[in-house]
């Protein structure tokens, strides 16, 4: 018998609901993207985000509940951290009400862990232990994933998140929000105009005017993007009429080089067979290509979700919820609500068995 799960995601600027069978078969996946609401401000406005969740969530639920399989929902999985508090509360309270009304389990999900399990939706299941590289707009970290609910941060960022840096660079270049996809588009167009295929870019890289990112914290590399952003800023001060496509490429090239160096370093220390690459930035074809190349060289299996499941969605929340449901586990942090647990350190939490009583 198939287990049907409902996923709800409202941690930032995507209002999303999903109906998923056995944690992998997508039955419904309505998403309301709030880009147009936040675009005029160049970033997410928390109050506007939670209001939009309040307004849109009922319609998305209606959509999911119109599926015949919705009669047999066994659990509701909901993102409860990290994220914007007001936005999280909209999703969490809705899930809580549904679980009481329908008499089903509520499984609270860490958004970051959910990203690492998005590959389940395309039938790719990483085996434990694995490394998880999460690059998104709000978070950037490399995780050691020992088991379900058992993650520890190996390296995180000392300043911007990777997607945030791409968004800010795009804004410096006058590209619209969110900038990550725009940076990719411009960079690929630059390569095409220079008749350069991916992986055959040495001549372009040699011309990169932006400074390299060389960051070490206590001799171990960690992520850092603010220096590169500053380098772009000063370049633009000195060159008021720049080639936007070229700079988008050079910025992305430096970001990629840096990410690869960090991954290369830690895959030597943690010689695991699998690396999962997830989060909004994992939708970037340039980064995907180069990471794949590195992994092939190092004989590491690279697992990346399809681009549609890299950015925020509720299907990954339902998929991870299924794994917990199957094991009869709930993340230990599920007890933080209605207390404040939202400020707990992210990424490290240990699943705990929940008695059936
Ligand atoms: O995971 P996500 O949807 O939301 C967060 O949890 O942050 O990630 C959004 C981030 C944004 O910074 C966006 O610019 C970036 O992912 N992004 C991309 C691409 N698609 C989304 N960055 C580079 N290339 C892309 N194709």
Description of the molecule:
By secondary structure, the chain is of the alpha/beta class. It folds into two domains: 4-120 and 310-356, ATPase, nucleotide binding domain (Nucleotidyltransferase, domain 5); 129-304, 2-Layer Sandwich (Nucleotidyltransferase, domain 5), CATH 3.30.420. It is 40% helix and 20% strand. The chain is built from eleven helices and 13 strands. The chain has helices at residues 35-38, 46-65, 85-102, 111-116, 162-172, 179-193, 202-205, 226-238, 244-269, 285-297, 315-327; strands at 4-9, 14-21, 25-28, 31-33, 73-81, 105-110, 130-135, 140-147, 150-156, 274-278, 301-303, 329-331, 351-353. The strands form three sheets. Strands 1, 2, 3, 4, 5 and 6 form a six-stranded mixed β-sheet that branches. Strands 9-8-7-10-11 form a five-stranded mixed β-sheet. Helix 2 (46-65) runs parallel beside helix 3 (85-102), helix 5 (162-172) crosses helix 6 (179-193) and helix 5 (162-172) packs antiparallel against helix 9. It is globular. The structure holds 5'-O-[(R)-(carboxyoxy)(hydroxy)phosphoryl]adenosine. 5'-O-[(R)-(carboxyoxy)(hydroxy)phosphoryl]adenosine binds at residues 12, 136-138, 163-164, 166-167, 178-181, 184, 279-281, 283-284, 311-312. 5'-O-[(R)-(carboxyoxy)(hydroxy)phosphoryl]adenosine is lined by residues 12, 136-138, 163-164, 166-167, 178-181, 184, 279-281, 283-284, 311-312.
